[in-house]
Every structure is written in structure tokens, then in C-alpha cells.
Amino acid sequence: MVETHRSDGRKTGVLVIDDHPLVRDSLAMLINQQEDMRVCGEAEDAAAAMRGLSQAAPEVAIVDLSLKEGSGLDLIKHLKARAPGLQIVVLSMHDEKLYAERCIRAGARGYVMKRESSKRIVAAIREVRDGRLFLSEQAASHFAERFVGARLSETPLETLSDRELEVFNLIGKGMPTRDIAGAMHVSVKTVQAYCARIKQKLQIASATELLREAVRWHDQQNAR
């Protein structure tokens, strides 16, 4: 039986970070219906999230990886650096096999796919609030394999660094190199260097093939 009441009687303050107003409204309604939690702030981008962290002092943050400005992974790192005690749940459309471990390494404690039920989201908030990890059985099994060093099933995309994967994702969105550099706050040459490493790791010969593969992957993510 899941315990829904806190021993101290307080409600858990939750900061909701997502760039879609409809998603924020839906999450806020769901959270505020619970007896043991409340939404204490909302944010649509990284800057607003950091302000909300200071103003609302949440215990838990729900973070979407796909923000209009900035990287969700970077935001997780910044949130944990500012507030080490903050518990973070990632709510994302992106494949957990590729992103869950990266998010946990960055400082999150839970990963939930957006296709999951509202009960799973609420359960994730309670689990991380109480100091436990929240992952699907598939993600937990993948973690266990990586922990014991079994990397035989590692896909080429899993070999990409967090920054390389971010570049690959932005290419898939159709962003040109200069815009990617601006979004990541790096130089064009740095983005080009990331692209070169991505092509090497994915065994891609040309920029055209890189674009095609990135768009295909991005479309698959959005179709989930």
C-alpha cells in the first residue's frame, strides 16, 4: 500500500518545469489533487526555473528535457548545484534507454515517460521525495547491466556524450549550425567538432547523412 500522508503533515512543494502551458496546467491539476503535495511554482525555461527554485524553495522538481531554450540535462545539473537537497523527476518523451542514465548521472532521481499514466507520475514524486530512485523495470535492468560492465548491447547512440547527443537532437529539429551554437552558448567551431565526433561514433560519412539520421531519430522520438 502506498503511503500518501507525510508524517509531519506538510504538503510536498513541487516545481513544474515544462515549456508547454497545457502540460504544466495538466500536471498542476494532477499534483494539487493529491493530499500530500502541491505545486509551488511553474517555469517554462531554465532561467524561470532557477528563479522559481529561489522563490518557491521546492522539495521536488519535475523537469522536461525538451525546453525551448537550453538543455534539460544542463538544467538538472544547475538545479542540483544550487539546491543539493532538491529531488528531481524527469518527465520526457525521449527514450529512457538513452536518457534515463544520463539524467540520473546529472542528478535526477526519477525518469518517467510522458506516455505513462498519471498514477506513475504521482508515484515517482513520492518515491524521490522519500529518497528512492524511480525507474521503469526496463531502465532499472539496463542500469544493472551497465553497472556490472555488460556493454555488449550498447547502441552507437549510447556512446555519444551528453553534449554530442544534444547536438544530434538539435540537428534533428532542423537547426543550422550557427543556431545550435547560440542555443548551446558555444562557438560554431565547437559545434562542428561535436558533429565530427558524432559522425565518427555513428559511422556516418557526410553531413547530409548526419542530417538525415538525426531527423529520422528525432521524428521517432516525437512519435512515441
What is the number of E strands? 5
CATH class of the largest domain: Alpha Beta
Helical residues, percent: 40-55%
CATH H-level homologous superfamily name of the largest domain: Response regulator
- What's the number of structural domains? 2
Distance between the amino and carboxyl termini: 31 Å
Low-confidence runs of at least 5 consecutive residues: none
Our count of helices gives 10
User: Outline, from the CA principal axes?
Assistant: globular
Annotated CATH topology of the largest domain = Rossmann fold
Strand content: 5-15%
Q: What is the gyration radius calculated from CA atoms?
A: 18 Å
Mean pLDDT figure: 86
What is the CATH architecture term of the largest domain?
3-Layer(aba) Sandwich
Could you characterize the architecture of this molecule?
- This protein is α/β, with parallel strands linked by helices and 224 residues long.
- It folds into 2 domains: 12-146, Response regulator (Rossmann fold); 156-222, Orthogonal Bundle (Arc Repressor Mutant, subunit A).
- It has helices spanning 21-32, 46-56, 72-82, 96-106, 118-129, 137-147, 162-172, 177-184, 188-202, 207-222, and strands at residues 12-17, 37-43, 60-63, 87-92, 110-113.
- The protein is globular and about 60 Å long.
- It starts with 11 loop residues before the first strand and ends with a helix.
Keywords summarizing the entry:
5-stranded parallel β-sheet, Rossmann fold, Arc Repressor Mutant, subunit A, globular
